[in-house]
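Bench log, entry 3. Co-assembly request; chain sequences pasted below exactly as received.
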Amino acid sequence: MTEADLTPELISARRWADEDVQAARLPMIDSPFVTVGGGLGSFAMVNVLRIAGIPTSAIKVLTTIDKPEQTYKFLAGNSQIPDHERLRSDSSSTIDNIWGFPSYALREGLSAKGLGNKLRPWMNVITEPVLADFYTPKAGQVYDSVANEAERMGWHQMTAKGAVRMVRPRHGGGYFTVLTPPRGFQPPPGSGPTKRIVYRSSHVHLAVGYPGVRFLGDLQEYRQKHNDFSRVVNAYEPHDYVYEELLRRPSTVMVRGSGIVASRILVRLLEDREKRGAQTTILHLFRNYVHESQGDKATFRRLGKNGFAYQGFNYPKAAWGGQLKERLEALEGKDRADLIGLMGGTNTPWRKPWEAMMDRGRQGGYYQQWIGQVQSVEPGPNQTITTTIIDPEQRSTQLGANFIIDATGLESDISEHRLLADLLSHAGAARNPLGRLDVEPSFEVRGTRNEPGRLYASGSSTLGGYYAGVDSFLGLQYAAIQIADDLASVGFGKRIGIGRSVREWMRWMRKKPIPA
Amino acid sequence: MTPTLLGRIQSRLFLLGTVGLLWTILVVPVLPKFGASIGEVYGVTISALVIVAFFGIGWEFLYHLIQQYRWEKDWPILYGLITGIPEGILTWLIVAVSFNPTPSGVTFFLHFASTWIVVWLVANGPFRVFLLRWRFRGGRIV
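Structure output for the full assembly:
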């Protein structure tokens, strides 16, 4: 018997009936709620639903990864944040704890040895950002906390491995989510050999993360034209061999970008130079150099100098839950996109040790800042790559480097993601002013409702909606709460009120599992 | 915290009326009273709470104005603590002229400072356990 698979009829139909799926002999599994992704977005969603009283049997997590923190950890690690380094995240943005209490700083102090070590994170949060830089948690602390909470909520009882190919509305309400399981999987009992499994659910949540990393156009062109994928690298890709090579011989590295990813790469390069004996010269190329603070109003001015725009997190804090959040919620279309741009854009946190390291680099001549538009990127002499730039005075300069690191943190278009592309072409979804998925304030994907079912999305793919910080721990939790409240309004789960909130928090504190 | 103006006022009134009041009820019996009766001390301390609540609405407008000059539009935890100094002085002045004889400054100080710190601690952590959405709503309760 041949393996059952999607038929051309199914692929082209915008809406499927149960009989269509049965006719294709695809096994069908019922689950009231399906979340696709299985990373931190799905984790936050399931966490809130479990706390809202939804049993594990009513939730399926469709994922290609083994642990919810896996993809985040992979990207953070590549961009040079190992477990012992600190993330760029607020103390009370506790992804493992929807209340934000106890915060990461409080917990770090409690588990530290010695009074000085206990008091340090506490004093940090009490005096930030006035007398100290913002406290941020260590990556390892966050990963451990996620693993514990995943265990507590029964995460691994809810996961099913595989890639999700499409979500299609169902005749009669709800959705079909098509999973392609890994090779060699056991088909469900009673079904024949099959390439796909179809999940039939009332509600679907998509948290698929970045569609992919994107290179700057000139670097992408160079890579393809000269078939050189090892010396022009993206900060989000594995590229540790670059740092190893730099330790072995004096070299020149060009860094492109001026946001947090670039800062991380610069810190790694400078630390290797100061502490591990590397003789690296860093050419930091800026396209937009920030000379001074940004904004023409005293009430809307962001610190800027030395090329960088500075703020604690990727948006001003009030974008997550204050004045700026309320302001954004009231805007539509281009106005909304503009405000997101003004609050966000390329920026990095001010951290005293980083600034000191860059100052030393400037003085020593091994950290050089260049400003210009790139004209061309071509192979140069002695295994180098020559970048020709036109500076603001219209002079042409050639910069040679052994490696180029693209730390611009660009993301691919959402249509690069197969599932999102299908959602746009077949399930009624549309784009928001920033070109990503258009969602309601409840994070329901506009145009996809199939009563009584609802389809939601959260995370990076929804940037451009009514909430700016979607791609952050707190933003994922906010989206999850909005979605859970919306679902509670149609009878799926309970709205988390005071009583439930307190009870579940006590359970969290006692490290007791949420009942299945 | 990232309060809005309305959130500031609501949070102040709510926290004073719950945490502040409860703390006052609990702490007054153990405060040094310098000859005053417990009833008199309750009269002064609860009046102080009402003054902080009422005049606090005015203070919140000032804080909100200051916040406009902060890029992050946040209210640092430290600000939430040190604003207790001007507010405490104003409250003392009002209490001192309103009560005859003038209550003990030490009793007032111990009550005011401890209440301020307890409310500040609760606002910066445990309060969120009760109201899950509070921190996303700029401190609004309703």
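The CA atoms of residues 92 and 100 of chain A lie 5 Å apart. Chain A touches chain B at residues 92, 98-103, 106, 125-131, 295, 298-303, 311-312, 316-318, 320-326, 478, 481, 496, 498, 501-502, 505 (CB under 8 Å).
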